[in-house]
Every structure is written in C-alpha cells, then in structure tokens.
Write a structure and sequence with these properties.
With 329 residues, this protein is an alpha/beta fold. The protein has helices at residues 2-8, 13-29, 33-36, 70-74, 119-128, 148-161, 186-203, 219-230, 252-255, 267-280, 295-304, 313-318, 321-327, and strands at residues 46-48, 51-53, 57-59, 80-86, 99-102, 107-110, 134-139, 167-171, 209-213, 236-239, 260-263, 286-289, 308-311. The chain is globular and about 50 Å long. Bound molecules: flavin mononucleotide.
C-alpha cells in the first residue's frame, strides 16, 4: 500500500485521484478490497439527525463527485458517504491545473469549480447502489447561473435527489464558483432558505438538510447564519469547506495559487467554527470537516461539538489505512 501511495504521487493530482479510486473499485469488484483493507474496528451505531450511522467517520464532498464509487468506498468501513457536489447540468469546471498537492504540509489547494456529470447521472448511480450505509448528496449551482437562476439550481437538485439520498447538503461555500459565497450574506441566505423551505413543504421532504459553510466567515456572520437556520427547515451545519486564506502556509510558492486550502493548515480554523457554533447552540447537529489527518484531529472535531466527521485530504495523503487509524479504539 505504501508503495502504491509513493508511485501514485508521480502522477498529476487529478490523474492520481482517478487511478486510485478506479484501482480500489477494481479490487472491490473482484472481491479483493477487504483482503487488502481489513475492517478491524467494530461498528458503533450512532444516531445523528434522526439517522442511524455505522460510525462517525465519512467522506467529504468532492471525493466522489458523481457517485461512481459508492459501493467501493462504502465497503472500506466509512460510516457514511457524501457524494457531489452535483449541479443541474454537467460542467467541465475551471481550467487545469486546478488541484495542487502540498505533501510537505499535508494539504491540497483546489480550484476545480464543480466539475461534475450533472444531477441525472448521479441519481442513476444512487439508484444502483448496493451500499447499505448512509449516503448524503451535496448540491450546488452551475457556474453560469446567477441571481434567481442560481437559487433555482439548488431547488432542481433538491427535487431530483431527495428521494434517493439519506440527507442533502446545500453547498454555499465553494470558493471556486464566482460569488457563490455571497450566499452566506443575510439577504441572499434568507431568500435561499425561504425557497428551500417552500420546496421542502411542497414535496413533503422529511430527509435532513444541511448547509455547508465556509471557514472564512467571521463570528458575527456565523451567528447570523445560525439564526436564519433556526427559522428554517435546515437540520444542521457542515463546517467547513476549504479556506481561501493561505497566510498560514509555510511554503511561499503555494501562497499565490488560486483556490481553497484543505488538509492540515485548515484544521484549527475549521475546528474553531465548530466550537463557536456549538457554543451558540448545543442542539444543532454539526458535521465537522477540515484538516483531519489523524485520530487526534478526529477526536478534536468531536470534542469541539461535531456529531460526525468527514475527511478528504487525509484520505488522499494516507490512503484507506486512515479509516482504521481513526476508528480503532
Ligand atoms: C480536490 C477537492 C475537491 C473538493 N470538492 C468539493 C465539492 O465538490 N463540494 C464540497 O462541498 N466540498 C468540496 N471539497 C471540500 C471538502 O469536502 C472539505 O470540505 C475540505 O477539503 C476540508 O476537508 P479536508 O481537510 O479533510 O480535505 C473539495 C476538496 C478537495 C480537496
């Protein structure tokens, strides 16, 4: 496995991602995955947002944008998976290179821009899945959609995915779709949440809906977001997405790269958001994500108030062994 991780580093980041997931999927299909990656931890059933989870550790959005690897990732021992971000219409995303691995700092900078095959493709994969664990779907807006059209994109996706998802995440926090983060502002968010409330009522949606926020909002903004959420049909918060703040990166050549920082340099900032949210509300369900590279980081998220924890960069850097590292007692 260590050999595989060393070899894969030679490939450009997006090719490495695709080769890694397809290799895991191949092993899964020939029934060898669980021989290479034995599940050594026992599942502990967690109830969170009225759903039962096998354990607290899940994949973060972006790892499997189109739901192509649900059964394979599920069989590695994750307690849940979040697929997406998906948009109504398929799109290419931003120009390459748009993923930069910073191995020295256990970090990635990405400016992908919601490259995905569109919501209908994802729904087909959701319908086909054999994995019996929880699958959340993260939804977003197409790059060209602005104003009313942008809100409509979320509603289109919500309508298409809710029957096939265990929960839905409204992603307002990608830094790589122009002005998307404006949706954190009171007026914009109020309008978005009102429309989501109406849609949820019209369609009788009973599945939990989460909002995924940016780590770059200040406390006042987070407090306002929480107030708006309390008056809405939103169940909880996912904290956080990537950060555009590169000031704490140690290597200067990474500071000028456009995109969002994930991995170790994000850990403190995103965990502080969890602590702040849980200091304002003890009851709001929080999914913590950002910088979990070790079991210690995972525990820090839980201690800060996260009921569930997601990983992306830690999985890319350490491979599937990080799952057992985190879940072992
Ligand atoms: C290459 C890459 C692509 C991502 N794509 C998405 C995405 O499509 N939607 C989303 O909500 N978050 C996306 N994220 C953010 C992750 O879900 C997560 O919030 C962030 O990376 C922090 O977690 P980590 O430090 O464990 O990576 C992406 C992150 C990376 C590194």
């Amino acid at each position: 496995m260590n050999f595989f991780l060393k070899v894969i580093k030679i490939f450009p980041p997006e090719a490495a991602h695709s080769i890694s997931l397809n290799s895991l999927n191949f092993l899964y299909k020939i029934n060898l995955l669980n021989i290479f990656f034995k599940k050594i931890s026992k599942d502990e059933i967690i109830t969170f947002a009225n759903i039962k989870f096998k354990n607290r550790l899940g994949t973060a959005a972006g790892l499997d944008k189109n739901g192509d690897f649900i059964d394979c990732l599920g069989s590695l021992g994750f307690g849940f998976l979040e697929v997406g971000t998906v948009t109504p219409v398929s799109q290419q995303g931003n120009n390459k290179p748009r993923v930069h691995r910073n191995f020295k700092e256990n970090s990635i900078i990405n400016s992908l821009g919601f490259n995905n095959k569109g919501v209908d493709y994802l729904v087909k994969n959701l319908k086909k899945r054999k994995y019996d664990g929880v699958v959340g779907v993260n939804i977003g807006a197409n790059k060209q959609s602005v104003g009313e059209k942008r809100i409509k994109d979320y509603l289109i996706c919500l309508e298409k995915v809710h029957e096939h998802a265990d929960y839905v995440t409204i992603n307002i926090s990608s830094p790589n779709t122009p002005n998307l983060r404006d949706l954190h502002k009171e007026d914009y968010l109020k309008e978005l949440l009102e429309k989501i409330n109406t849609k949820s009522k019209d369609l009788n949606i009973s599945k939990p809906i989460f909002i995924k926020i940016s780590p770059d909002e200040n406390n006042e903004s987070v407090r306002n977001i929480l107030k708006l959420i309390n008056d809405s049909s939103i169940t909880g918060i996912i904290a956080t997405n990537t950060s555009i703040d590169k000031s704490n990166l140690m290597q200067d050549n990474f500071k000028t790269i456009e995109g969002g920082v994930s991995g170790a340099p994000l850990m403190k900032r995103s965990t502080e958001k969890i602590s702040y949210i849980s200091s304002l509300s003890k009851s709001i369900p929080i999914i913590g994500v950002g910088g979990v590279i070790s079991k210690q980081d995972f525990n820090a998220k839980v201690n800060a108030g996260a009921g569930l924890v997601q990983i992306y960069t830690g999985f890319v850097i350490k491979g599937p062994k990080i799952i057992q590292e985190i879940l072992s007692i």
